[in-house]
Each structure stands twice: as C-alpha cells, then as structure tokens.
C-alpha cells in the first residue's frame, strides 16, 4: 500500500526545512542521512542508477580541477555569491570552460549556484578548501584512482585470486613499478606530504578512540617517565600520538611511533614522541605497550578494504578474523569498544592468555 500523497508532500516540506536547519546531534544526522540515501536508491529509475554508478569517477576528476584552480578556496574566502567574471579573473581559466566546471560542481552539490551565474560556498566547498582535504583530493586522484581503474584487468590476469603480495597489486600495474606502495612514494614530490595531511584530516569532526577508551586508568601510580606508556604500531605520520599527548597533558612516560622507515621519515615532528622505524612483521623491540586495532563495518569499511587490496594487498578484518589473529598470538580479546557506530571503528582490548 502506497503512502498517501499528502504525507509524501508533507515529508518533502520537512526535508526542505531540514536542509536549512539540520539537527546538531551527530548520531541523528547520520541516521537521517542513511535513511535518505536508502530512500534515494529505492526511488531511482534504472537510468538514474546506471548514471550514478557509471559517472561516479567524474566527481573526483572535476573536484581535482576545481582544487587545482583554487575555486574552493576563492568561494570559501569570499563568503557570498561570486560572479563568473570575478571568478574568471581570479582563477585564470577560460570563461566558457569555467562555466562548465561550475555547472558540474553545482549539480553535484559541491557549491551553490544562482540563476545569474553567481556562486557561493557550501559546507562541501569549505571542506574541500581545507588543506588536509585538498591533500586528500590529490592523494585519491593521483595515487588511488589509477589503482582502482587497474583493478578489473589485474584481477582477471590473476584468475581472480585474492592479492597477498604487496609487490603485486593493481598499484604496481597502474604506476608501472615493482616497488611496494610506500617505497614507491619516497622521493615523489608531495606524495607522502599529501598522504600524511589526508590521514590527519580524515578524522576531523569524528569521535576519537580516546572518547571511549579509559587511557587515564592505564597509568599506574608508580609509572615513571622512562616507562613505556603508549606505542602506535603502524602509526603512520603520528596523528594518534598527537592525540594521546593532547589528552594526557602530564608526564605519562614514553610515547613511541612505529612504522616502516619510509613512513617514519615523513612523520610529523612531535616533541616527546620517539620515532622508531619498524616492519611490524618482525619482532617488536618495545614491550608493555597499548596496541590498537580498528574494526570497521558498513560502506566506509568496504571501501577501505578495496583500497587496501588495490594498493597494499591488505584487507580489513571482521571480529572473527581478529579473534583468530589475537588467539594465534597468544592473546585473548577482553573487550571491543566502538567509537564510531556508523563505521564500526573500534578499539580491541587484548590480554595474554592464561597458562
């Protein structure tokens, strides 16, 4: 039985109100967004479904063009509607081409357009203008997108075997190299910088694992500044170490960042944080540490799983996978503390198995 038309029109009106006054609670916003997206997919015609899937790479392509031209920054700084002629002068691009770019950006809600060829920033525009998200555009367009495009031919060439060798992935096919992704990135102008900036920015506005994990209680009364307090294994450029230092502002002991040598070389300089190059498949030289592991579900995790497969021959793991891994290491899972319910980002608390 269909919902009465008057109820549908009433819902449309309420959605228009929410567009201008969205709820402040993050959990409600996510629940509302999920419901709207699911409804949108149900309402699609076959042609609309195909267009959404077939043309999806255009979004990052045009976002890259707009970012290179500084359009997101120009509109965000201006703060109000900006005419095409003014944009044309400041962006240094042919006016007819600029109009086509702006038309697409408006159609995909990356900015707002009026009927008089004037444009102004939206929340999406301001997000894309931030340095970390601008770096994310560069990273995904220049590094990830070629790997994704190589994925079908790569999998076909291997007889659709699950990638397990980090030197034999779609990344190597796309970038014409035999090196693992991180080693390839060393020496490439801006590659590791953009990656580090993006990794720091991607958690902006999100809950942290420190919001659910009682880190303060791990500090013992006899804890000294020479004792190891926190080790981030495979910690990238060090954004988690920064978060721990900010949360625990007193003398808490040693904080250590570990990752591959090529990653550590580009890590953020952090006062009081030791940086140790390490391949985490070898023996761990530091003991008595807090070990973190993320468990993700739903679409963001599925996307990250494909990214890891395409570039690193890695994968995201579910709870059963982690139970096996932890058990094989002589440990057991004590608790799983989710700090992002939508993505399933969690902290796994483990302890040694009893003899």
Question: What key phrases describe this protein's structure?
Answer:
single chain, 355 residues, mainly alpha, 3-stranded antiparallel β-sheet, 3-stranded parallel β-sheet, globular
Helix content: 40-55%
Output the structural class: mainly alpha
Strand order of the largest sheet: 1-3-2
- Assembly state (oligomeric): single chain
Biggest sheet features: 3 strands, antiparallel
Molecular shape: globular
Q: Report the portion of residues in β strands.
A: 5-15%
Rg on CA atoms, Å: 24 Å
How many H/I helical runs? 16
Low-pLDDT regions: 290-296
Order of helices and strands: HHHHHEHHEEHHHHHEHEHEHHEE
Let me know the average pLDDT. 85
The N- to C-terminal Cα distance equals: 61 Å
- Count the strands? 8
How would you describe the overall organization of this protein?
- 50% of the residues lie in helices and 12% in strands.
- With 355 residues, the protein is mostly helical.
- The strands form three sheets. The chain has a three-stranded antiparallel β-sheet with strand order 1-3-2. Strands 4-5-6 form a three-stranded parallel β-sheet. A two-stranded antiparallel ribbon has the order 7-8.
- The longest helix is centred in the middle third of the chain and has 27 residues, at 131-157.
């Amino acid at each position: 039985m269909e919902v009465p038309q008057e109820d549908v029109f009433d819902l449309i009106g309420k959605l228009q109100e929410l567009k201008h006054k969205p709820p402040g609670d993050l959990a409600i916003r996510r629940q509302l967004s999920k419901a709207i997206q699911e409804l949108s997919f149900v309402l699609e015609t076959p042609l609309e479904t195909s267009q959404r899937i077939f043309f999806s790479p255009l979004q990052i392509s045009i976002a890259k063009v707009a970012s290179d031209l500084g359009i997101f920054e120009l509109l965000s700084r201006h703060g109000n509607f900006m005419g095409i002629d003014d944009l044309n002068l400041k962006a240094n691009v042919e006016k007819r081409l600029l109009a086509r770019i702006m038309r697409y950006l408006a159609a995909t809600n990356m900015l707002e357009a009026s009927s008089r060829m004037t444009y102004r920033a939206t929340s999406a525009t301001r997000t894309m203008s931030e340095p970390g998200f601008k770096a994310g555009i560069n990273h995904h367009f220049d590094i990830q997108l070629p790997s994704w495009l190589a994925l079908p031919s790569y999998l076909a060439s291997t007889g659709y075997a699950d990638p397990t060798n980090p030197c034999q992935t779609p990344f190597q096919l796309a970038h014409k190299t035999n090196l693992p992704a991180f080693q390839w990135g060393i020496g490439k102008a801006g590659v590791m910088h953009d990656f580090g900036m993006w990794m720091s920015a991607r958690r902006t506005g999100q809950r942290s694992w420190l919001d659910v994990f009682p880190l303060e209680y791990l500090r013992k009364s006899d804890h000294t500044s020479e004792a190891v307090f926190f080790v981030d294994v495979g910690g990238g450029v060090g954004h988690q170490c920064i978060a721990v230092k900010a949360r625990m502002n007193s003398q808490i002991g040693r904080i250590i960042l570990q990752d591959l040598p090529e990653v550590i070389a580009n890590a953020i300089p952090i006062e009081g944080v030791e940086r140790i190059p390490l391949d985490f498949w070898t023996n761990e030289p530091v003991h008595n540490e807090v070990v973190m592991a993320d468990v993700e579900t739903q679409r963001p995790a599925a996307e990250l799983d494909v990214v890891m497969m395409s570039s690193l021959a890695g994968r995201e793991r579910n709870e059963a996978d982690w139970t096996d891994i932890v058990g094989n290491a002589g440990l057991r899972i004590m608790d799983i503390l989710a700090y992002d319910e939508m993505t399933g980002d969690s902290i796994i608390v483990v302890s040694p198995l009893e003899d």
